[in-house]
Write a structure and sequence with these properties.
The chain starts with 9 loop residues before the first strand and ends with a strand. It has one helix and nine strands; from the N terminus they run E-E-E-H-E-E-E-E-E-E. 30% of the residues are buried. The chain has one domain. It has a nine-stranded mixed β-sheet, covered by helices on one side. Helix content is 11%, strand content 38%. By secondary structure, it is mainly β. Residues 131-152 are annotated as: Disordered. InterPro entries: DUF5994 (IPR046036).
Length: 152
């Protein structure tokens, strides 16, 4: 149980649609996100993408973070040595979001800049860590967790 004023890290499995030829399939976005991000925290959660392909992965991440925090992401920053196929913009929830490369940042983070809010820094878990569908425990963030499933 959290004390008053203490945030609880909530792992959230959000779904987005990816086109697989003519069929559409729900692919979960594996995300552990602090529901009330602390501006002073080094990271605000973890994200476990399925690949290093920015075009394939970023739209689902943006939709998941926007829905979970009820915000609109305007810009996403990624490290160019970690990601492949980095576009200038990606489609997300009916709009196009700018993508920026941060060469001086930690290569294992993605930074989202929502409208009217502080930046959101997510630790990126390597996609190839395991084939297990459950993300690793958020040991760097919090030990108290709850599970929630939301559809985008």
């Amino acid at each position: 149980m959290a004390q008053t004023g203490q945030a609880i890290m909530t792992p959230t499995v959000l779904f987005h649609l990816k086109s697989l030829g003519s069929a559409m399939s729900a692919i979960p976005t594996r995300l552990c996100l602090d529901p009330v991000p602390d501006p002073q925290a080094a990271t605000h959660g973890m994200w476990w993408p399925y690949s290093h392909d920015a075009v394939a992965e970023l739209p689902g991440l943006i939709a998941a973070v926007d829905q979970r925090l009820d915000r609109t992401t305007l810009l996403v920053s990624v490290h160019p040595e970690t990601w492949e196929n980095i576009p200038y913009r990606v489609p997300a929830r009916g709009r196009r979001v700018r993508v920026n490369c941060l060469r001086r940042s930690d290569s294992q983070v993605v930074v989202l800049f929502p409208m009217g809010a502080e930046r959101i820094v997510l630790l990126v878990v390597e996609p190839d860590i395991t084939h297990n569908p459950a993300p690793p425990a958020p040991t760097r963030h919090a030990s108290r967790t709850a599970h929630e499933t939301v559809r985008v």
